[in-house]
Design a protein that fits this description.
Distance between the termini of chain B: 22 Å
CATH superfamily of the largest domain in chain A: DD-peptidase/beta-lactamase superfamily
Radius of gyration of chain A: 33 Å
Number of domains of chain A: 2
Structural class of chain A: alpha+beta
Oligomer: heterodimer
Strand order of the largest sheet of chain B: 2-3-4
CATH architecture of the largest domain in chain A: 3-Layer(aba) Sandwich
Helix content of chain B: over 70%
Strand content of chain A: 15-25%
Largest sheet of chain B: 3 strands, antiparallel
Largest interface: A-B, 45 and 55 residues
Radius of gyration of chain B: 21 Å
Strand content of chain B: under 5%
Number of helices of chain A: 18
CATH class of the largest domain in chain A: Alpha Beta
Helix content of chain A: 25-40%
Number of helices of chain B: 15
Largest sheet of chain A: 7 strands, mixed
CATH topology of the largest domain in chain A: Beta-lactamase
Shape of chain B: globular
Distance between the termini of chain A: 131 Å
Number of domains of chain B: 1
Shape of chain A: elongated
Number of strands of chain B: 5
């Protein structure tokens, strides 16, 4: 039976070769294969932290204005997926969520991964899953939801596709809201699903973001935005912003930038400027509003009173350049109150001269004193320190550079200086609240995981800008500018309302121009005989239009002031 | 021919291997179900694969016992009918595939299964058994008539072999089963005592046919190219991941239920690639044990063949070649020694048809191991006298 032996030897040789081969693969090359396998099997997954939600205040209670909702990202494996089935299913169930072009998805035959839809809702996923589509995966994630629609969009900002906050509260407080992502290092199956195999798995839990409560009064914000939009519809301007602060504590109650954009569809916004919160992100020249600061400095230093007189010739020559008034009347000897009422540049320049101990020229001492007040007392040209990102603006130092007298002459009426409405409103508040500067604040506290509202510490005044006496004087002086409003019954008896206009020239081809201007107005209001309860700063602009403080911004302030009185239920005196 | 107790090792190893296969499918079946469900949108239950394997093992045990009990004398009378039935089954599959019927289950242009609802059968497995029985009868008949290795023998031998290979290699595009059939044909011819000259001639004819088949079928060429390092991605991915599974197993393996490669990285992890998953799970030690089990089983089969009259000896040699070809071709492919072919690891791979028919073949060998006989064509000599005189006690001593 040698023939059967032949089969036996044949078998033993084959088995022998296989045994040697196995020895080589499993013993000699073991480390090499293990390394390759680990490279293929182990995946590091980020555990996405839950993003904190954003609240505003309403009747002293926090209300949600930005919240999360589970949303799914859908990924297909183009090699496995049946194109017709998938395309049909999505066009039936979630056509609005498809982010890819189907031709692109199936163009590259080697791809195994293509994101075809984002933000797919729970119900849609359920229906899609029922179709049992081959090679389709659903990844759960979070999506922002905006129950108030586009309200306060420039203030709130948005969250981009990568889950990162952009602009506004979302961008500024991204670290607070975003929390810290965790890490999951794990052996996964071929679909990247974690397996409970092996002991090398690492798990660092995610730290969820905090829920932030803003000081913003939701109802007031809504009312103000509505008024701004209405006003714009009847005006030649098409941009407006309003900032409402409580001058007694620096709390920001409204930050409106109109027009709003839809934060859920931020990618469709064409004009990137709409993302900017005009109250804090954009520094500009607030113009004649700054006269209040110049006068306050001069009064505080004892260099003048509202009754101090000077001879208004319509212009003052500084460094060889005549600087004129915008208003051509009121020539002759007039009081500083009159100068403020008619917003005369000669008045504020005279105040600067007086501040420097002279009645005919701007001096070094005058410049230094004005800078000290503007920068150190009023905090102009520097960050206010509020919780969100802000522009610092720019202020010229008193002894650096050239043409300083001319620059400082301009600074007295708010040109050659770049400030945010937030800086101006905070400084203005200190002028009329008794002289205390409160850093503006917008975070009222947080909502804990258990749903408890933990209030932020009450902010104390940071410093004194002027004495209480100067503040009283300034409040009266600013009230004094609204004689016409009281005469025509716009300011109702029993209320105490004051304010100041500003018309900033645009800059065109490197030079000031009156073809493009931004109208501003800042004012306060409250019950007569008591400290003001609100400060409102409005700004209205549009490239190519001349918009004035008096003609355009002042009527807007009047409307908003009425809204505030109504909203805060301020009763008139008497 | 004397009757004595059967060789117990064949039955023991058969059931042992079936049991190991069941354990492996139990540990990776759930992962397989999850992967299929998520990747292909199927709706397999967690226990689907295990339950299917359990049913298959049950049927395989039944097939083994039936083959053990059903007398070979009755079976050999049916050999021609079985051969015709096997050809008919292959023919029906070919026609179904041609008609595009859903009853023919095709993968990548290879139609190998007749699908009947929840289970499918592979006619090629039946064909192997039928061919073994038919060729054994044919050789025996011509030996008795003195017409062995004449034209009267070669014509039916050639036709049966060629038609079988035509169905399997050309219509079902199953080179793995083709190799197995060739192994069966050659092994039986070797044992039949055919002249070396004729053996070489048959071998050359088959080789020429093999070269032709590769030139005709592009996917076969691709697999060869893969093997030489320049083929398509999916075949090299398959071999690479099989070797990765085996390699990560190391000396003792990662342990039952800890195979990562089975979670979707390794294609066909429960069918043709189950050896690789076992390598990852049980390591070098485990694979050596499994390899040893197969080797002992196959050597025992050869031992049985050695003690039987020619016809029975041919049947047993055919079964030997069948099982040996599956084991060697499957493992050699998984370890990158030869190109990838779709062929199961006997008794261990998921998939009922192969398991049931191989169990039948092993049951038949077990039945024949109860007999010891002398070669009819040989005059009594010292060697055959020893065979006649062997008692079952002696047999037990020798196999111990």
């Amino acid at each position: 039976m040698s023939r059967i032996k032949l089969l036996r030897y044949g078998l033993l040789v084959a088995i022998g070769i296989i045994a040697v081969r196995l020895f080589v693969i499993q013993i000699f090359q073991h480390d090499e294969w293990t390394e390759r396998a680990n490279a293929e099997h182990i995946s590091q997954n980020t555990i996405i932290a839950k993003r904190g939600e954003i609240y505003m205040m309403e009747n002293d209670q926090p209300v949600e204005v930005v919240l999360n909702k589970a949303a799914w990202t859908v990924v297909v494996d183009p090699q496995v997926t049946n194109r017709e089935e998938v395309e049909k299913a999505f066009s039936e169930i979630a056509p609005d969520k498809v982010v890819a072009k189907w031709d692109d998805v199936f163009k590259d035959k080697t791809r195994r991964y293509y994101v075809v839809a984002r933000g797919v809702e729970r119900e849609q996923v359920k229906k899609l899953k029922e179709k049992k589509l081959a090679g389709v995966w659903y990844q759960e994630g979070n999506e922002r939801v905006y129950p108030e629609g586009d309200m306060a969009s420039a203030l709130l900002g948005f969250v981009n596709a990568e889950g990162k906050g952009q602009y506004g509260v979302e961008g500024s407080l991204n670290d607070t809201l975003g929390g810290t992502n965790g890490l999951l290092k794990t052996i996964t199956d071929v679909n990247n699903v974690a397996l409970s195999i092996g002991d090398d798995n690492v798990r660092i839990p995610a730290k969820d973001g905090k829920n932030v409560v803003l000081t913003i009064d939701r109802v007031l914000q809504k009312k103000i935005e509505k008024k701004l939009a209405e006003y714009l519809s009847t005006s030649k301007a098409n941009h407006a912003s309003a900032l409402v602060m409580d001058p007694r504590n620096g709390k920001i109650l409204t930050m409106a930038t109109i027009p709003n954009y839809d934060p859920a569809n931020y990618a469709k916004v064409e004009d990137g400027n709409l993302f900017l919160n005009q109250a804090s992100d954009v520094a500009y020249e607030p113009a004649s509003i700054c006269k209040t600061f110049t006068f306050a400095a001069a009064i505080e230093e004892g260099a003048m009173t509202p009754e101090t007189t000077y001879n208004n010739t319509g212009e003052i020559t500084v460094d060889g350049w005549p600087i004129k008034n915008a208003h051509s009347g009121e020539l002759g000897v007039i009081s500083m109150q009159t100068a403020l009422n008619y917003s005369l540049n000669t008045g504020s320049m005279t105040a600067l001269m007086l501040l420097g101990g002279s009645d005919s020229e701007i001096t070094k001492t005058g410049r230094e004193k004005l800078f000290d007040y503007y920068y150190n007392h009023f905090g102009l040209g520097q960050a206010t320190g509020y919780e969100l990102n802000e522009s610092t603006g720019l202020i010229q130092e008193p002894n650096k550079g050239y043409g300083l007298n001319s620059r400082y002459a301009n600074m007295t009426f708010g040109q050659n200086i770049s400030l945010t409405p937030l800086q101006v409103a905070a400084a203005f508040s200190s002028l009329i609240n008794g002289g205390e500067y409160y850093a503006p604040t917008i975070v009222a506290g947080e909502i804990t995981k258990e749903g408890k509202f933990v209030k932020a510490d009450e902010k104390k005044a940071v410093r004194r800008t002027v004495t209480e006496k100067t503040s009283d004087t300034m409040r009266a002086m600013i009230w004094g500018t609204r004689g016409l409003q009281r005469l025509y019954g716009i300011d109702k008896p029993g209320y105490y309302i004051g304010g100041k206009t500003g018309t900033a020239q645009g800059i065109k081809d490197g030079a000031y121009t009156f073809d493009e201007t931004t109208g501003s107005y800042i004012g306060f209001g409250g019950r007569e005989g008591e400290l003001p309860e609100y400060v409102i700063m409005v700004k209205i602009w549009e490239g190519g239009q001349t918009l004035e403080g008096t003609a355009d911004a002042l009527p807007l302030f009047n409307l908003l002031s009425d809204v505030a009185i109504d909203h805060f239920k301020i009763k008139p005196k008497g | 021919m004397r009757k004595h107790r059967s060789n117990p090792i064949i039955a023991i190893l058969t059931f042992l291997l079936l049991g190991i296969g069941l354990i492996v499918i139990y540990t990776i079946g759930a992962q397989r179900a999850n992967f299929m469900n998520s990747a292909y949108g199927t709706d397999y239950d967690q226990n689907f694969f295990f339950i299917h394997q359990l049913i298959s093992v049950g049927l395989a045990v039944f097939a083994f016992i039936f083959a053990f009990k059903f007398p070979y004398a009755k079976l050999r009378a049916l050999s021609k009918i079985l051969m015709i039935l096997a050809f008919a089954a292959c023919g029906i599959l070919a026609l179904l595939a041609l008609a595009g019927s859903s009853l023919a289950s095709c993968q990548l242009g290879a139609c190998r299964w007749i699908s009947l609802g929840s289970f499918s059968i592979q006619p090629a497995e039946f064909l192997k058994l039928a061919l073994i029985l038919y060729l054994a009868g044919l050789v025996s008949q011509h030996k008795e008539a003195g017409t062995f290795e004449t034209k009267d023998f070669w014509v039916p031998f050639g036709v049966a072999s060629a038609v079988s290979l035509f169905f399997v290699v050309f219509l079902q595009k199953d080179l793995g089963t083709g190799v197995c059939l060739i192994a069966i044909i050659l092994a039986m011819l070797v044992v039949s005592g055919a002249k070396l000259r004729n053996l070489v001639a048959v071998f050359v004819i088959i080789l020429a046919g093999g070269v032709m088949s590769i030139l005709v079928s592009p996917h076969r060429l691709e697999r060869l190219m893969t093997f030489s390092g320049e083929g398509d991605a999916s075949s090299s991915y398959h071999i690479d991941n099989a070797m990765m599974a085996i390699g990560t197993g190391g000396l003792f393996g990662v342990g039952v239920g800890n195979s990562v490669q089975a979670t979707g990285y390794l294609p066909e992890s429960i069918n043709d690639s189950v050896f690789a998953v076992m390598g990852e799970t049980f390591g070098f030690v485990g694979l050596m044990a499994i390899l040893a089990a197969f080797t002992v089983l196959l050597l025992q089969i050869l031992k049985v063949a050695g003690g039987l009259p020619l016809e029975e000896s041919l049947v047993v040699a055919g079964v030997f070649a069948w099982v040996a070809a599956h084991v060697v071709v499957n493992i050699a492919a998984m370890t990158g020694l030869i190109p990838l072919t779709g062929i199961t690891l006997p008794l261990l791979s998921f998939g009922g048809t192969s398991m049931i028919f191989i169990s039948y073949g092993l049951g038949l060998v077990s039945q024949l191991s109860c007999y010891t006989g002398r070669r009819k064509e040989k005059d009594e000599g010292i060697s055959s006298r020893r065979g006649v005189g062997r008692t079952h006690y002696a047999s037990r001593r020798r196999s111990a």
